Amino acid sequence: MSTASRNRRTVLACSAAVIAMTGLSFAAVPLYNLFCKVTGFAGTPMVGTAATGKTSDRIVQVAFDANVAPALGWRFEAERTQIQAQVGVTQTVFYKITNTSSRPMTGIATYNVQPNQSGAYFVKIQCFCFTETTLQAGETLEAPVVFYIDPEIELNRELASLKSITLSYTYFPSKNGQPVAESKGDGNQSKL
């Protein structure tokens, strides 16, 4: 094989590697998000369509944390800061979201569950998270979260002593369905 032929093959192989790595870098975030949603990794609650029908006598305190990014002129709070939830029993908690600014604003909520390991057993049936919400000046919206704690949690020895779970939401301004936060200093916005 000639030197020119080997050089051409090397250039093609390197180009293919660069293209593949670039493609993987763009796919990394969506694939990681999908992985978290499927496995409950990093405190990401599972998404379900209905309760399992199984229950347990175990009671877990579920606390509800509500936060708003400074750039969004909203007030956001849970109707109750905590409840006693029986494992396997469907629960509904409402959040109240109010636009306290003088203009329409659009926001989107991100969430997580603590401790992280409990995310695999915290199953949300209905949620306002990752849905853009536009509120007019002074408008208030009540939004439900319907969830249950999967009875499979009883099989996890690491969570045998778990007595409480915190579901935490943060509302951010959104643009094109994605949360954004203000950059410090230049007034521009950057994606989270």
Automatic annotation (TrEMBL):
Tell me the residue ranges located in the Cytoplasmic compartment per UniProt: 1-6
Kindly indicate where the leader peptide sits in this chain.
1-27
Q: What NCBIfam families does this protein's entry cite?
A: PRK05089.1 (NF003465)
Alphabetical keyword list: Cell inner membrane, Cell membrane, Copper, Membrane, Signal, Signal-anchor, Transmembrane, Transmembrane helix
Q: What is this protein called?
A: Cytochrome c oxidase assembly protein CtaG
Task: Relate the protein's function as given in its record.
Answer: Exerts its effect at some terminal stage of cytochrome c oxidase synthesis, probably by being involved in the insertion of the copper B into subunit I.
Query: What's the family?
Result: Belongs to the COX11/CtaG family.
Q: Please report the organism this UniProt entry assigns to the protein.
A: Bosea vestrisii
Return the Pfam families for the record: CtaG_Cox11
**Does the keyword section mention Chloroplast?**
no
Entry's HAMAP family? Answer: CtaG
PANTHER family attached to this UniProt entry = CYTOCHROME C OXIDASE ASSEMBLY PROTEIN COX11, MITOCHONDRIAL-RELATED, CYTOCHROME C OXIDASE ASSEMBLY PROTEIN COX11-RELATED
**Matching SUPFAM superfamilies, A to Z?**
Ctag/Cox11
The topology of this chain with respect to the membrane is: Single-pass type II membrane protein
Q: Which residues lie on this side of the membrane: Periplasmic?
A: 29-192
Give the location in the cell.
Cell inner membrane
